[in-house]
């Protein structure tokens, strides 16, 4: 599956950036798709369920907010998950890399969050269940100043409320 | 020319009052002058002597005031204070009359002397004289009264008077900087609103770091700061009153409000609001709370800054496909692109003089700070780096501050982020010393309007 390949590359990037041995978290996210059986603590419909079994984030090209094919595939899984867990509401965070100016990046992050939200809505997730927020370049996941880190930081993250 | 000058300056930021008198008629303009429109290769050597005082307390104030003045003038890059160890004439005899030969021999072109007295009602009286050593003429002489704890403000006002007399331009030393203090790892950065004098002294934190805060800007009235806060997780523009310590949200808007700036008259705030992923520029009248929308475009429209006459607005938009600078009328009419060199442009800020717009430019993996005229002509880049951003103007329109962030290594270490000042000529770049990392500086107007 295409999603799994993307997810593996992403994890490899994080591991390389940290320069440490894989932690249990990275091991579990890079594990087999049927991870629920090996992760008995994960509750269906929980934040961990979304992150580990569905994929909570999608990535964007530099200074872009259009969804890639990979991003749409992830969001399709998120939409199915949200329709299966109808009591869950989410906030979609839009983020940018550090290679832009602060105010423009707030606007760009807002566009990214809304691009993801709009796509979920076209997949029948009610708009009342989705809110958005932009963090611009304020909350990177990878603090390095490298192309690999910036690619990780240009993202939208779907967060269970 | 006789000055019948007797002014009372209201000190809005610190709720104090100054009394200033010119006690000696200002001499006709002497030959001693510096043209600050060109880069200065050789700073003017001058002697700043400890201000004379009778008592121990007065002597100490006199020495402290002189050292603040010398540091101000040195940092401007236009003056070279001579090491006091080289001085021949002592302060006591200088208090009677300068022996100009003693100052010429150590190459001083200008001489600053003064006197400090504690008055019977507990105030500090500070007087100073600036002498043209070669012409043997007094260039300016002034006296001030203040409460003793405010001696730093008097020193900065004296620095401004010296700067103004010699360059012909108003100074910028009696000013403050509001900025964002930063600490902790990049992934969990703690940001606090902070304020300090332009020389980094009298530093205070204004928020605790609980909420993410960004992009503070001064009101021309000096009592208020507008900034972005993620209070309760909702990014909105706030107004902070320095005197009362109150934070107040700017209006009730359905989407993120950001990129605020006061209008030059302080009566309104211009800002961006984003709805459903589209940002537009709005202006709110602070008295009536009425809001006008200035842009209407599917592109990003942000970072607005008004011209000092309030008639035009420069802003950042990617309506051409990449972020560029545009100027429109303050009604929103006729948006016209002004940036045309290679790369992307951001953070335009109109000079208080009206003659230039400062900006950030991103090209070929590097960031630059530059200036251009409001029609886009005469672009000059004045500094560059891995990341330089957010220029802010000194009130005289001759000096900028901005912040510089170093790259981080693969573990996220490094990434030093500090505020710097630089002349618009590109000369004299200096770090402004802050207790921790620092970004998003905003320069106040002159505090006592000297």
TrEMBL record, chain A:
<protein>
    <recommendedName>
        <fullName>Peptidoglycan-associated lipoprotein</fullName>
    </recommendedName>
</protein>
<feature type="compositionally biased region" description="Low complexity">
    <location>
        <begin position="22"/>
        <end position="38"/>
    </location>
</feature>
<keyword id="KW-0472">Membrane</keyword>
<dbReference type="InterPro" id="IPR006665">
    <property type="entry name" value="OmpA-like"/>
</dbReference>
<keyword id="KW-0564">Palmitate</keyword>
<comment type="function">
    <text>Part of the Tol-Pal system, which plays a role in outer membrane invagination during cell division and is important for maintaining outer membrane integrity.</text>
</comment>
<feature type="region of interest" description="Disordered">
    <location>
        <begin position="22"/>
        <end position="47"/>
    </location>
</feature>
<keyword id="KW-0449">Lipoprotein</keyword>
<keyword id="KW-0998">Cell outer membrane</keyword>
<comment type="subunit">
    <text>The Tol-Pal system is composed of five core proteins: the inner membrane proteins TolA, TolQ and TolR, the periplasmic protein TolB and the outer membrane protein Pal. They form a network linking the inner and outer membranes and the peptidoglycan layer.</text>
</comment>
<dbReference type="GO" id="GO:0009279">
    <property type="term" value="C:cell outer membrane"/>
</dbReference>
<dbReference type="InterPro" id="IPR050330">
    <property type="entry name" value="Bact_OuterMem_StrucFunc"/>
</dbReference>
<feature type="signal peptide">
    <location>
        <begin position="1"/>
        <end position="23"/>
    </location>
</feature>
<dbReference type="InterPro" id="IPR039001">
    <property type="entry name" value="Pal"/>
</dbReference>
<dbReference type="InterPro" id="IPR006664">
    <property type="entry name" value="OMP_bac"/>
</dbReference>
<dbReference type="InterPro" id="IPR014169">
    <property type="entry name" value="Pal_lipo_C"/>
</dbReference>
<dbReference type="Pfam" id="PF00691">
    <property type="entry name" value="OmpA"/>
</dbReference>
<dbReference type="GO" id="GO:0051301">
    <property type="term" value="P:cell division"/>
</dbReference>
<keyword id="KW-0732">Signal</keyword>
<feature type="domain" description="OmpA-like">
    <location>
        <begin position="47"/>
        <end position="161"/>
    </location>
</feature>
<comment type="similarity">
    <text>Belongs to the Pal lipoprotein family.</text>
</comment>
<dbReference type="InterPro" id="IPR036737">
    <property type="entry name" value="OmpA-like_sf"/>
</dbReference>
UniProtKB/TrEMBL annotation, chain B:
<dbReference type="InterPro" id="IPR011042">
    <property type="entry name" value="6-blade_b-propeller_TolB-like"/>
</dbReference>
<keyword id="KW-0131">Cell cycle</keyword>
<comment type="subunit">
    <text>The Tol-Pal system is composed of five core proteins: the inner membrane proteins TolA, TolQ and TolR, the periplasmic protein TolB and the outer membrane protein Pal. They form a network linking the inner and outer membranes and the peptidoglycan layer.</text>
</comment>
<protein>
    <recommendedName>
        <fullName>Tol-Pal system protein TolB</fullName>
    </recommendedName>
</protein>
<comment type="similarity">
    <text>Belongs to the TolB family.</text>
</comment>
<dbReference type="GO" id="GO:0017038">
    <property type="term" value="P:protein import"/>
</dbReference>
<keyword id="KW-0574">Periplasm</keyword>
<dbReference type="InterPro" id="IPR014167">
    <property type="entry name" value="Tol-Pal_TolB"/>
</dbReference>
<dbReference type="InterPro" id="IPR007195">
    <property type="entry name" value="TolB_N"/>
</dbReference>
<comment type="function">
    <text>Part of the Tol-Pal system, which plays a role in outer membrane invagination during cell division and is important for maintaining outer membrane integrity.</text>
</comment>
<keyword id="KW-0132">Cell division</keyword>
<dbReference type="Pfam" id="PF04052">
    <property type="entry name" value="TolB_N"/>
</dbReference>
<dbReference type="InterPro" id="IPR011659">
    <property type="entry name" value="WD40"/>
</dbReference>
<dbReference type="Pfam" id="PF07676">
    <property type="entry name" value="PD40"/>
</dbReference>
<keyword id="KW-0732">Signal</keyword>
<dbReference type="GO" id="GO:0051301">
    <property type="term" value="P:cell division"/>
</dbReference>
<dbReference type="GO" id="GO:0042597">
    <property type="term" value="C:periplasmic space"/>
</dbReference>
<feature type="domain" description="TolB N-terminal">
    <location>
        <begin position="32"/>
        <end position="139"/>
    </location>
</feature>
<feature type="signal peptide">
    <location>
        <begin position="1"/>
        <end position="30"/>
    </location>
</feature>
